[in-house]
Amino acid sequence: FQQRTISISLDEATDKRVRNLSLKEKFDVVRMITEEKKTVKEAVIKFKCGKTQIYSIMKEKDKIIEKYMSSTNVNVKKERDGNYAEINKSVFEWFLQASAKNVPISGPILQAKAKETAKLLNVDGFSASNGWLQSFKRKHGISCSVACRKSNEVDKDLVQNWFTKLKEIIRGYDPKDIANSDETALFYRAMPNGTLKMKGEKCSWGQFSKERLTILLTTFADGTFEKPWVIGKSEKPRCFRNIEINQLSVEWKWNKNAWMTGDIYEEFLNKLNSSMKKQNRSILLFVDNASCHRSLPLSNIKLIFFPPSTTSVLQPLDNGIIQNIKVNYRKLLLQKVIANIEMHKVVSEISGKIDVLDTISFLKRSIKMIKEETIRKCFKNCGFLFDSGDS
Taking every annotated instance into account, which residue ranges of this chain make up the domain HTH CENPB-type (predicted)? Predict the structure, then answer.
């Protein structure tokens, strides 16, 4: 019976009529085939469409990825308040990051994240009302079927059980030997709508920027960071022309989608393991369940995976550290714009000249701006409790 159902679905999908796929569905097709290594036939069955459609999508996969990452609804009126637009931009970036990891996000979670972002940006009077939520979803093409399921709520019992297990997992380890690692997307030319806009100037530059890097951050419970890994789309960008890549303040990796891959992650783990071995340290490394996070036998690192769909509550990097780094980055980016405003006619010229080398510099400075105490508090809020004697 099951085989017959699949056969009928496939025939209907390929022979009867074309089914229009949303941008999100097209993006999922690309991820399914390129990252999950699924077949075209499996994609046809899952999305109930024709083979020709799948082949067409894969032919245009680079454009689809860029369009998805920068997607906004052009028919929606622009935000009246530039500060709220900055909140929207930051929340949408976070939403994309969560979606890329298949983390389900509900409406209330989006509202809570928006309130948290407003506090970080020092924006008063923002309540993240239901009206704001509907406007936000409409503007960015987020449907309730994707983002607003009741099952998205984090299981409180699961979290409580984790806290109990965590005490035993970290027993005997110093804070300096307990780490959390995670990736985040950085839209490095993203500018707030309305910022420094001249009357009559078009604001196309203020739309969600498509220039994206993937940043792999690793921080320890004592408040320190490992060297970040940055993944771009070019092996050696033009701005690296006179630079030795191994002399950069980050580890530079690349692939055509600027995504974290299993191979890059294995390289990261092996390099971190070698570093810990040289320092005669054995560490715990807490990570999420992303498909690229492969488990390896390592001599000086013990990998611990968070329970699925709980990182918004349990992962220190997701509890303010990444967000603070991005807020710092935006501030540095805007400072550069303001410092150069007299030399250019429009802000788009300035933001367009921000290259990967600038981004690496801003990123390192943004990380240094995070206080060690802030990191320690984020770990504590996620259940990483240590004896007062630990340092």
Answer: 75-146
The closest alpha carbon to 71, from 113, 109, 35, 99, belongs to: 99
Q: CA-to-CA distance for 160 and 383, rounded, in angstroms?
A: 10
Within 13 A of 69's CA, how many CA atoms are on the CB side? 22
As given in the structure block, the two tokens for residue 309 are 């769909």
Tell me where in the chain the CATH 1.10.10.60 domain(s) lie.
82-152
In this prediction the pTM is 0.62
Report strand pairing: 229-232 vs 212-220: antiparallel
Q: Indicate the SS3 state at residue 299.
A: coil
The sign of the dihedral angle between the CA atoms of 206, 209, 215, 220 is positive
Region 156-381: CATH code: 3.30.420.10
List, for residues 163-191, the tens digit of each pLDDT value. 999 999 999 999 999 999 999 999 888 76
What does the alpha-carbon distance between residue 217 and residue 317 come to, in Å, rounded to a whole number? 8
Nearest to 281 by CA among 255, 302, 252, 306: 302
Assign a CATH topology to domain 82-152.
Arc Repressor Mutant, subunit A (1.10.10)
